[in-house]
Specification:
single chain, alpha+beta, 3 domains, 6-stranded mixed barrel, 24 strands, globular
């Protein structure tokens, strides 16, 4: 019987080639989208699952005086971890992580720069399950002068030599000698912690052991089994009050994130430097929902086309029922046909996934792969999903087709039914509502991304090359500046401790207005060279820029408009100019020499914060900013590289255009926009496939009616409008439903951005017009084909 079912199923699929191809292609595209998104979601959810489940990361909420709003940060204070372990039985173990980038190490004559190294507590390898393949994991970093390196680092630095016991040197601000005690496996790609070597933290940073003021590292705790995190957090205010002097404890809150949630639940947490491929779970969930919608649209296509062609199977049902076939048997056969079609679609879908994965991996910066033959679990999930899709798609057509009464259908009185036509209309409207909604969402997402990338940030971003510096190369900054400035390719050279577009540090300052009491507050700080503002074309609206010579009044500060308004909030009648010359700063108080126009030094996700800029070259710089001549970028970069090599022969030259840095800042937004756009395109393609199939069926069933109309004088235009009008009406209804839904959702979504576009009615009208045109083009081929057919042939055919 099963063999017979398969034979009949294949025969019917071959007989109805057009509808079969439409169904297979539609289902395949929907399945492929779901498989790719399933791989992406699975990858995202796999982050840090190989570690123990009771590890948490300590985070802070900071609300300092003068800050417009509180901020969450991933950093914490050095003494917190040992104090927590000593005072709370909930804490079983801890480790702190301080990172360094471009860490220079040498072995004999071989020198290399490790992309990232961690200084950690000895509890690091107790908390985290990073495999040690050589050496003793328990003693790997017990000594202050011991270092554990990854397998990749070992191969690059030692080649075929055994690294254990070898001595390597680091030259820099914290020059040190290390003995290699262990070789670790390279961290998995789905680990938020990515490193090239680890060494002992307390041995390097003893002087910070009792500092409860600075936040400059990450803290991880292993909690006792059964610990309630929320209850534990309620004990933190008393803990802070005990250890932080005065009222300083009031400016902090502590909260904990389970390690497995850090990767996807840290979108609102700043200074989150150790979160590899950080990606908001809201975006991941959005992809899953849209992919599911695309698959549902493909299933709707099948139901529509199957019920539309019910009359073609009516006589078959009647004959088989009259010779004893049971309804259940017929239903099983029709369901088997659907499942067979789904299996064909699965094969096509796998091909599509394999073709698309290189592009998806490049876009998402992940390494997704469809290794179903080496992953039985993945194979079972995909096959089970395919069977479910086939069953859900075919269950209604199977019940409907098997319900025909043999006496009626054999007499030719098949009732496709008004209700069945209504259901098809509802499903078509549902398809296009989803497709139109996704098209509108894609347009707004792309417009917001374009707005963020093109909005004037208040400073020059074009033709700026940034070069990272460390404590060694920074000593040659003045020479670098002098050498570069003498060339016509260079328009300006400046430097800073932080790079625009990155999250800048907060710092406490003091302010004294005339004879009023001294005020303590906090703001974002930017330490710069004296020509920084002029190089970046940041406007000074009151006062003057930094002096090239040392000021007689001490340290000079330039504040932004937001900080100026904060300083004058208690003096509503005072002018901004009254702040010039007022005492301001930290340590020995300096003076405010200028007020800069507000500029977006951070991502447009955030409002402009209170900022103060200080000129202190002796504190050192981490980034050189070089403004180059437009149109000669290649020559300018080569000149910068040659000059760098001359001054810093032992340091590799790295550079980045500031525009590219800001592109990285908005990389996650760009990924979301492109993936949503791809899924929206798939939704409209599948919807159009279904519309094409229904238009073909409609034209086929009305062939004699069209012939009669043409004989009576109807024009081709009349016939096309007759066949197209009904479907266009459904698309218009879909737009009227999708518009308010899209308006509501996009309004909510845009609220996540401090600076965003306005919702424009034009977009809705444009998408409405585009959807109608797409639908019209989809069905016009069949409509025109039917309209130009010879009426003699259509009226003569039986």
């Amino acid at each position: 019987m099963i063999k017979n079912y398969l034979k009949i199923a294949l025969r019917n699929l071959w007989k109805n080639k057009v509808s079969s191809i439409i169904n297979i292609v539609g289902l395949a595209v929907g399945m492929a989208a779901c498989i790719v998104i399933m791989l992406f979601v699975t990858y995202e959810k796999s982050f840090d699952n190989f570690h123990r489940q009771n590890i948490v990361r300590l985070n802070e909420v900071q609300k300092f005086p003068g800050m417009a709003a509180s901020q969450k940060v991933a950093l914490s204070m050095f003494p917190m971890a040992p104090a927590l372990k000593a005072e709370f039985p909930e804490v079983k173990e801890f480790t702190r992580v301080k990172w360094d980038r471009k860490y220079q190490v040498t072995y004999k004559e071989r020198r290399m720069f490790l992309p990232q190294v961690f200084a950690v507590d000895t509890g690091f390898l107790k908390l985290f399950k990073f495999d040690v393949i050589k050496g003793d994991a328990h003693k790997a970093i017990e000594s202050p002068n011991s270092i554990a390196i990854t397998q990749q680092t070992a191969e690059k630095l030692f080649g075929n030599e055994d690294p254990i016991g070898k001595v390597i040197n680091h030259y820099g601000g914290d020059t040190a000698t290390f003995t290699v005690t262990a070789v670790m496996a390279n961290p998995p790609q789905n680990s938020q912690l990515q490193f090239d070597a680890i060494f002992s933290l307390p041995g390097i940073h003893q002087k910070w052991m009792d500092n409860w003021g600075g936040n400059w590292l990450n803290t991880y705790l292993q909690l006792a089994d059964g610990t309630n995190i929320k209850s534990f957090e309620k004990k933190m205010p008393a803990f802070l009050k005990k250890h932080i002097n005065g009222d300083g404890w009031k400016y902090y809150e502590l909260f904990y994130l389970p390690l497995k949630d850090v990767h996807a639940n840290s979108a609102d947490i700043g200074l989150d430097y150790l979160n590899y491929q950080k990606f908001d779970k809201k975006s991941t969930n959005l992809f899953a929902v849209i992919a599911f919608i695309v698959l549902v649209i493909a299933c709707i296509n099948f139901m529509n086309l199957s019920t539309a062609r019910s009359a073609d199977r009516a006589k078959e049902v009647g004959v088989r029922k009259s010779i004893g076939a049971q309804r259940a048997q017929l239903a099983i056969q029709f369901l088997a046909e659907t499942i067979l079609l789904s299996l064909f679609a699965l094969i096509f879908a796998i091909v599509l996934v394999e073709l698309a994965l290189p592009y998806i991996n490049n876009l998402s910066q992940r390494n997704l792969n469809l290794d179903i033959f080496n992953s039985p679990q993945l194979m079972v999930v995909i096959l089970a999903g395919t069977l479910l899709v086939g069953t859900l798609s075919g269950i209604y057509p199977a019940i409907f087709l098997s319900s025909f009464q043999p006496a009626k259908v054999l007499k030719g009185s098949v009732e496709s039914g008004k209700n069945k036509g209504t259901l098809r209309n509802v499903l078509v409207v549902g398809q296009f509502t989803s497709a139109v909604f996704l098209m509108i969402a894609t347009i707004f997402v792309l417009k917001q991304l374009d707005f963020m990338q093109k909005k004037d940030p208040g400073f020059t971003r074009d033709q700026i090359v940034t070069v990272p510096m460390d404590r060694i190369s920074d000593k040659n900054y003045e020479l670098l500046k002098q050498e570069l400035s003498g060339n016509t390719l260079i328009k300006g050279v400046t430097a800073s401790q932080d790079q625009l577009g990155s999250h800048l540090d907060q710092s406490g300052v003091e302010f004294k207005y005339n004879n009023q009491p001294l005020r303590e507050l906090s703001g974002t700080q930017l330490v710069v060279d004296n020509n920084y503002l002029s190089t970046y074309n940041i406007k000074v609206i009151e006062g003057k820029n930094f002096s090239s010579e040392k000021s007689a009044n001490g340290r000079e500060y330039i504040i932004n408009e937001s900080m100026a308004k904060e300083l004058l909030k208690d003096y509503p009648k005072a002018e901004l100019s009254s702040l010039i010359g007022q005492r301001f700063g930290y340590d020995s108080l300096g003076v405010i020499t200028g007020i800069a126009k507000d500029f977006n030094f951070n991502s447009l996700h955030y409002k402009i914060e209170n900022l103060f800029i200080v000129n202190q070259s002796k504190w050192g710089f981490n980034t050189a900013s070089i403004k180059i001549k437009a149109g000669q970028s290649k020559e300018a970069v080569e000149f910068i590289k040659a000059t760098w090599k001359k001054l810093n022969p032992d340091h590799p030259f790295e550079y980045q255009f500031l525009d590219d840095h800001f592109a990285e800042v908005y990389q996650a937004d760009n990924q979301v926009s492109q993936i949503v756009g791809i899924l929206a395109a798939l939704a409209i393609i599948i919807s159009c496939l279904g519309l094409f199939g229904l238009a073909s069926f409609s034209a086929e069933k009305r062939v004699k009616e069209i012939g009669v109309r043409k004989v009576l004088g109807a024009s081709v235009q009349n016939i096309v409008l007759l066949l197209s009008g009904h479907f266009i009406k459904l698309v218009i209804i879909a737009n009227l439903i999708a518009w308010p839904l899209a308006w509501y959702v996009m309004q909510k979504w845009l609220q996540d951005y401090a600076y965003h576009i306005n919702i424009s009615v034009t977009v809705f009208l444009f998408i409405g017009l585009v959807s109608v045109i797409i639908a019209l083009l989809t069905i016009s081929f069949q409509s025109i084909k039917a309209a130009v057919a010879n009426p003699v042939k259509s009226l003569r055919s039986e």
